[in-house]
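Re-running Probable xyloglucan galactosyltransferase GT19 to confirm reproducibility after the cluster update. Everything else is unchanged from the original entry.
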Amino acid sequence: MRLSIFQHLVSMAYKTQITTTHFFLLLIINSASSQQILNTESTSNQATTAECNNRWIHIRNLPSRFNLDLLTNCSEYPLFDDFCPYLANHGLGQKTHIKSRSWYRTDPLLLELIFHRRILEYPCLTNDPNVANAVFLPYYAAIDSLRYLYGPDVNSSFQHGMELFEFLQYDEPGIWERHVGHDHFLVMARPAWDFSQPLDNDPPIWGTSFLELPEFYNVTALVPEGRAWPWQEHAVPYPTSFHPSNLACLEAWIQRVKTSRRTALMLFAGGGGISATPNIRRSIRTECENSSINSNSSSFDVLKSNGIYSKTCHTVDCSNGICEHDPIRYMRPMLQATFCLQPPGDTPSRRSTFDAITAGCIPVFFEELSAKMQYGWHLPEEKYAEFSVFIPKEEVVFKGLKILDVLMGIPRREVTRMRQSVLELIPRVTYRRHGSSLGLRTTKDAFDMAIDGTLQRIKDKIANLIEG
Ligand SMILES: *[C@@H]1O[C@H](CO)[C@@H](O)[C@H](O)[C@H]1NC(C)=O
Ligand SMILES: *[C@@H]1O[C@H](CO)[C@@H](O)[C@H](O)[C@H]1NC(C)=O
Ligand SMILES: *[C@@H]1O[C@H](CO)[C@@H](O)[C@H](O)[C@H]1NC(C)=O
Ligand SMILES: *[C@@H]1O[C@H](CO)[C@@H](O)[C@H](O)[C@H]1NC(C)=O
Ligand SMILES: *[C@@H]1O[C@H](CO)[C@@H](O)[C@H](O)[C@H]1NC(C)=O
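Result of re-run:
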């Protein structure tokens, strides 16, 4: 058994010329299904049966064409960047530099791998689907979607997922039938928008139809961004580049964030805003460019003469994706800013929201769909006023409201309180490194919160199903 998996991987590695790092990634994920990781994890975690009550998860055994095989084509999507470099460290990417302990060049597309690796060390795994409270599908849905979104299968995008559905119907069909899919969940590491093309769009406009297929209505999909009226999906944080492996690393970072000197009032790290049509990014750009001339300088002068800020607005130009795998470009400025602007871009949500929280920079939202309507499991809806600022984009774009004036109007004491609330959110939006210390595992991270939310959601769904 071992040998054949090994041979398979070696031949695959040759065929596709994947590098050693990727090769080991595949090997380790595969060996996990052969119990090795499971055994060490469950003994080190010492989860008792009582603790696992109502929390058992069964990982559905899927053929490698639904996950690992998809990684071997990581450099072959013509309209999509080569993502091979980001497969390292089970999808966390390479470390930002050799001595870095917690920082990686993480690509959010690889959340499917990150999740897969983490669930292998979940303490309440069961091999018996009949006692499971939830069934995880280790399908790399967003990676598989690339061939429809950017590849040769663009005209059959309504078929995305059908092969998986057929497999679930003929291979051990009892697992699906037990709750007709209501207890199944998976991760789809792109905004739901990319998977919700209506089935009758002819020709297709954008996206696959995975979330529009009645076959998958019962399955819970974890996505980084849900639709405005989500049905089966629920949003979980985008992974940032910060993946500590022990409590000391996490605490040292939070301490650094707490004591960082914040010399800029507000920061925008991103691109866009160069088109002529009015939009929020354009308003931010002009307001920042003009901030020295145009801001309500009398109130800013007060802040400046108190030695609080040396700059009103700092922009980090992230056009053309230059920041994506280079967290140093934006994390340093974020540590030095009080407020971080989170305008919608192609879609309402941004990974940058989570980078900002990680840096203790108070997020400023311009629409509810950017976060408040999304991340209820991780960022409690009733606490938004405590950790973020909301400025409706219409007020800025069409009514001339100045962001600077709003932010400068917030009293210092209030700012300090808000930053404290942001600091408290850091652990729950961080995906800690797999195989981390037991001490760190006692703090719930983004993965743990997502599992809690999923189990609760599935429990409610099944209760409804039984009530009829
Ligand atoms: C990978 O790409 C090759 C052609 O480039 C294709 O034949 C193969 O089916 C692809 N494999 C997967 C798993 O998508
Ligand atoms: C998809 O369909 C369109 C319109 O029928 C056609 O122009 C295009 O070549 C097709 N693309 C592929 C990859 O088959
Ligand atoms: C989804 O669940 C409903 C009951 O809630 C059931 O009637 C339907 O057949 C299920 N769909 C699939 C594809 O199993
Ligand atoms: C920026 O300054 C220019 C020149 O003073 C002015 O025309 C423009 O309206 C200003 N833009 C904003 C958004 O204040
Ligand atoms: C500047 O700020 C003061 C105090 O916050 C306010 O009363 C005034 O209307 C502002 N002026 C402009 C031009 O925005």
